[in-house]
């Protein structure tokens, strides 16, 4: 079976338009990105030119309305994330950060001038954005952030460090969250602003086809017009995270599907004991069990997309999807790797690359522990984060 999601005929649950968007994204990636991604992973690079290509494809901020964005359904955005992450989590991450964190923060909380200045260029991939919330000492608990923005006359002066920031070293504009006397606020920091620098994080064993950086702010002076006027507390960055987490719910299905497809293909052709290894009951058990997990994840993702389109999707429901689908995807990627035997440790095959990437996906956008606690909070009414 070419696509294990066909077992339950899941594609029949999609509209023609959604299927067309998914197929267009998949075809583009098969022709232009998949042939290169293992080398990018090995070299630890993500070519900057990819941004404009993805802009032309129309996936950057595709679920947003206006300002050069496509304004597609939430489901179409999810399906694009699925296909992007089926190639590599780093590619989906680029698109998530650009569209759901950088662009969304401006689209939702920015002034009209900020939207006009940045959104069309970000949608086209002519500019790249990043989103700086995490700090060296504050990851799961961003409420403790130390980055400060202090008023100085009509200006703001920012000092602090952000850590593990996707696209940081590529970005033309950084959305930076900082503590002020009035609470947490967001600022747009253009590349080249005096006192603002970035340093890429090297020696990663995961997300190698992705740029991850430190943002350093030393006396960065910004005008009031650089502040996101509608962002008035920690609620604002956490609301942006909901958008990116929704994309991950689908993206994880893509990484899992691609791993399982690689295992299925391999099991049909690899001969041991004079038979294809697919003929062994233990191999079939693995393939069947992974297909059931994958189908469950996809049905959950579709359900969450319907809730999002109905405007009723709640953060704890996204937590169910992010927790389940990423945990399930990493289990599928690892199990698929076992079917490939020694060949499975080579970059020629995708499952171990996906599994390594999914280590990051388990951690970012809220660790699995944090999402379990969010679900626990919704169930009991008791927040046990601290
Ligand atoms: P808490 O007091 O619970 O909340 C503060 C305010 O925020 C509201 N809120 C949310 N609003 C919208 N969506 C959510 N998911 C929200 N969660 C909380 C909350 O109602 C409250 O509002 P208000 O108006 O009453 O003030 O905050 P807390 O300090 O107790 O923290 C809660 C916790 C732990 C859930 C939160 O801090 C959290 O989510 N931590 C995880 C941090 C995280 O996910 N960081 C991700 C950084 S970005 C990233 O990783 C990008 S990876 C690249 C890629 O996406 O590909
Ligand atoms: P910590 O918060 O220190 O957690 C360490 C461990 O303690 C985890 O297992 C965690 O689950 C557990 N833990 C923490 N608190 C609790 C608790 N209350 N109860 C139980 N267990 C707990 N951030 C950005 O802002 N922007 C980005 O673009 C971005 N991109 C990233 C890209 C990559 C490749 C990676 C790896 C990270 C990225 N991040 C980004 C950072 C990411 O969001 C954080 O790594 C994540 O929020 C976890 O924070 P931490 O790494 O500091 O871990």
From TrEMBL:
<dbReference type="GO" id="GO:0050660">
    <property type="term" value="F:flavin adenine dinucleotide binding"/>
</dbReference>
<feature type="domain" description="Acyl-CoA dehydrogenase/oxidase C-terminal">
    <location>
        <begin position="237"/>
        <end position="379"/>
    </location>
</feature>
<dbReference type="InterPro" id="IPR009075">
    <property type="entry name" value="AcylCo_DH/oxidase_C"/>
</dbReference>
<keyword id="KW-0560">Oxidoreductase</keyword>
<dbReference type="InterPro" id="IPR013786">
    <property type="entry name" value="AcylCoA_DH/ox_N"/>
</dbReference>
<keyword id="KW-0809">Transit peptide</keyword>
<dbReference type="Pfam" id="PF02771">
    <property type="entry name" value="Acyl-CoA_dh_N"/>
</dbReference>
<dbReference type="InterPro" id="IPR006091">
    <property type="entry name" value="Acyl-CoA_Oxase/DH_mid-dom"/>
</dbReference>
<feature type="domain" description="Acyl-CoA dehydrogenase/oxidase N-terminal">
    <location>
        <begin position="15"/>
        <end position="126"/>
    </location>
</feature>
<dbReference type="GO" id="GO:0004361">
    <property type="term" value="F:glutaryl-CoA dehydrogenase activity"/>
</dbReference>
<dbReference type="GO" id="GO:0046949">
    <property type="term" value="P:fatty-acyl-CoA biosynthetic process"/>
</dbReference>
<dbReference type="InterPro" id="IPR046373">
    <property type="entry name" value="Acyl-CoA_Oxase/DH_mid-dom_sf"/>
</dbReference>
<protein>
    <submittedName>
        <fullName>Glutaryl-CoA dehydrogenase</fullName>
    </submittedName>
</protein>
<dbReference type="Pfam" id="PF02770">
    <property type="entry name" value="Acyl-CoA_dh_M"/>
</dbReference>
<feature type="domain" description="Acyl-CoA oxidase/dehydrogenase middle">
    <location>
        <begin position="130"/>
        <end position="220"/>
    </location>
</feature>
<dbReference type="InterPro" id="IPR052033">
    <property type="entry name" value="Glutaryl-CoA_DH_mitochondrial"/>
</dbReference>
<comment type="similarity">
    <text>Belongs to the acyl-CoA dehydrogenase family.</text>
</comment>
<dbReference type="Pfam" id="PF00441">
    <property type="entry name" value="Acyl-CoA_dh_1"/>
</dbReference>
<dbReference type="InterPro" id="IPR009100">
    <property type="entry name" value="AcylCoA_DH/oxidase_NM_dom_sf"/>
</dbReference>
<dbReference type="InterPro" id="IPR036250">
    <property type="entry name" value="AcylCo_DH-like_C"/>
</dbReference>
<dbReference type="GO" id="GO:0000062">
    <property type="term" value="F:fatty-acyl-CoA binding"/>
</dbReference>
<keyword id="KW-0274">FAD</keyword>
<dbReference type="InterPro" id="IPR037069">
    <property type="entry name" value="AcylCoA_DH/ox_N_sf"/>
</dbReference>
<keyword id="KW-0285">Flavoprotein</keyword>
<dbReference type="GO" id="GO:0033539">
    <property type="term" value="P:fatty acid beta-oxidation using acyl-CoA dehydrogenase"/>
</dbReference>
């Amino acid at each position: 079976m070419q696509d294990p999601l066909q077992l339950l005929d899941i594609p029949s649950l999609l509209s023609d338009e959604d299927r067309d968007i998914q197929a267009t994204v998949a075809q583009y990636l098969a022709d232009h990105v998949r042939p290169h991604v293992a080398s990018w992973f090995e070299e630890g690079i993500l070519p900057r030119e990819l941004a404009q290509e993805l802009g032309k494809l129309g996936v950057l901020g595709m679920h947003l309305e206006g300002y050069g964005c496509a304004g597609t359904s939430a489901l179409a955005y999810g399906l694009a994330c699925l296909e992007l992450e089926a190639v590599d989590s780093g590619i989906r991450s680029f698109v998530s950060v650009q569209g759901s964190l950088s662009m969304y923060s401006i689209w939702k909380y920015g002034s009209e001038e900020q939207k006009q200045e940045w959104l069309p260029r970000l949608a086209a991939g002519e500019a790249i954005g990043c989103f700086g919330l995490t700090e060296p000492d504050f990851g799961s608990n961003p409420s403790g952030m130390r980055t400060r923005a202090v008023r100085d006359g009509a200006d703001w002066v920012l000092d602090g460090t952000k850590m593990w920031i996707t696209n940081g070293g590529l970005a033309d504009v950084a959305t930076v969250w900082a503590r002020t006397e009035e609470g947490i606020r967001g600022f747009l920091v253009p590349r080249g602003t005096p006192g603002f620098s970035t340093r890429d994080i090297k020696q990663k064993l995961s997300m190698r086809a992705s740029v991850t950086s430190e943002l350093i702010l030393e006396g960065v002076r910004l005008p009031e017009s650089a502040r996101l006027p509608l962002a008035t507390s920690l609620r604002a960055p956490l609301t942006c995270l909901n958008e990116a987490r929704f994309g991950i719910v689908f993206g994880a299905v893509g990484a899992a599907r691609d791993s399982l497809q690689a295992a299925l293909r391999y099991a049909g052709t690899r001969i041991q004991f004079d038979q294809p290894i697919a003929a062994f009951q233990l191999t079939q058990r693995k393939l069947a069990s992974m297909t059931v997990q994958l189908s469950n994840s996809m049905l959950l993702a579709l359900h969450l997309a319907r809730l999002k389109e109905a405007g009723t999707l709640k953060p704890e429901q996204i937590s169910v999807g992010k927790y389940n689908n990423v945990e399930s995807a990493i289990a599928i990627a690892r199990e698929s790797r076992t079917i490939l035997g020694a060949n499975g440790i080579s970059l020629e095959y995708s499952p171990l690359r996906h599994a390594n990437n999914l280590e990051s996906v388990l951690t970012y956008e809220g660790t699995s522990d944090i999402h379990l606690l969010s679900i626990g909070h919704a169930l009991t009414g008791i927040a046990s984060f601290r």
